[in-house]
Specification:
Layout (H helix, E strand, L loop, with lengths): L3 E6 L4 H12 L3 E7 L20 E2 L2 H8 L3 E4 L3 H13 L3 E4 L6 H14 L3 E3 L5 H14 L4 E8 L9 H11 L22 E3 L2 E7 L5 E9 L2 E9 L6 H11 L5 E3 L7
Parallel strand pairs: 1-2, 1-4, 2-3, 4-5, 5-6, 6-12, 7-9
Antiparallel strand pairs: 7-10, 8-9, 10-11
The structure holds NADP nicotinamide-adenine-dinucleotide phosphate.
InterPro entries: DapB_C, DapB_N, DapB_N_CS, DHDPR_bac, NAD(P)-bd_dom_sf
Subcellular location: Cytoplasm
Catalytic activity: (S)-2,3,4,5-tetrahydrodipicolinate + NAD(+) + H2O = (2S,4S)-4-hydroxy-2,3,4,5-tetrahydrodipicolinate + NADH + H(+); (S)-2,3,4,5-tetrahydrodipicolinate + NADP(+) + H2O = (2S,4S)-4-hydroxy-2,3,4,5-tetrahydrodipicolinate + NADPH + H(+)
């Protein structure tokens, strides 16, 4: 594979700093710059913990003009991630984006931009390949088990609940499962919320505790048996094989892909 020139936005962050390591350690990847909202004019290796000698830009257009990258990896925030994704496509740079919060309208607009520019884009709310497989395996299981509950567990700094992966899992299961109202028809919540959120009759439970990273169990029940499909991310390195896969794939496509499940066989 020919060398892929990469810019990372959010490089100082927990995900971004892992992505810097990934790019440095991957033979056919080359880091050419980073985008930050501070440290303009400095080199990345002037910041503590980094060895890559590449420029830091606060102006994304200037960064793209001067470094001429193939790919932008964006690991910033939902608001900034959206702006950067659009800017990248407008500049002919293929975005690989790990931030969430894209609406249907945003995705349509980005899809149109990929068509106009004839380049690919990948937005992946979850880069953990194990989590993608958990969703796919759950979809297979749901054809045989109608009764299912999802328990997702995350660190206590997470702002949204249920998690994007929890919702996505319930949607993928809904696509193949005959809709069913689970539990006893007369069940009553003694304390509101006890039975969790309800997506097409599938119950979603969100646990938030310090010490956790990202974990999810999909629990199926049938006559005399249960089936548990579980995934655990123990650190942010767990997301990097998915980032690598996305960068390699985004170079080969000319459309917008939303979700790594669409590029994993
Ligand atoms: P983090 O540690 O807070 O890192 C975010 C980084 O972005 C920080 O260095 C932040 O700088 C920087 N930043 C903020 N605004 C910026 C801007 N305008 N331009 C450039 N950089 C900017 O968060 P994280 O845990 O690494 O997560 C990063 C993102 O990835 C989040 O949106 C998170 O939800 C997402 N995420 C995705 C996955 C996945 O699998 N897809 C997994 C985990 C996390 P300051 O600290 O100075 O503000």
């Amino acid at each position: 594979m020919s060398e892929v020139k990469i810019v990372i936005a959010g490089a100082r962050g927990r995900m971004g700093s892992e992505a810097v390591k990934l790019v440095e350690e991957t033979e056919h990847f080359q880091l050419v710059g980073v985008i930050d909202h501070k440290n303009e004019g400095m080199r990345l290796n002037e910041l503590e913990g980094f060895t890559a000698d590449v420029p830091i830009y606060t102006d994304i257009d200037k960064c793209f003009f001067e470094t001429n990258p193939d790919v932008l990896i964006d690991l910033t925030t939902p608001e900034i991630g959206k702006v950067h994704t659009k800017k990248a496509l407008q500049n002919g740079v293929r975005p690989v984006v790990g931030t969430t919060g894209f609406s249907e309208k945003d995705l349509n607009e980005l899809q149109q931009l990929t068509e106009e520019k004839g380049i690919g884009a990948i937005i992946a709310p979850n880069f953990a390949i194990g989590a993608i497989l958990m969703m796919k395996f759950s979809q297979i299981a749901a054809k045989y088990f109608q009764d299912v509950e999802i328990i997702e567990q995350h660190h206590d700094q997470k702002l949204d609940a249920p998690s994007g992966t929890g919702i996505k899992t319930a949607e993928m299961i809904s696509a193949v499962r005959e809709e069913k109202q689970q539990g006893h028809p007369d069940e009553k919540e003694i304390i509101e919320g006890a039975r969790g959120a309800n997506l097409n009759g599938i119950r979603l439970h969100s646990v938030r505790l310090p010490g956790l990273i990202a974990h999810q169990e999909v629990l199926f029940g049938g006559d005399g048996q249960t089936l548990k499909i579980r995934h655990d991310s123990y650190n942010r390195a767990s997301f990097m094989s998915g980032v690598k896969l996305a960068v390699e794939n985004v170079m080969k496509i000319d459309l917008l892909v939303y979700g790594l499940e669409n590029i994993i066989e």
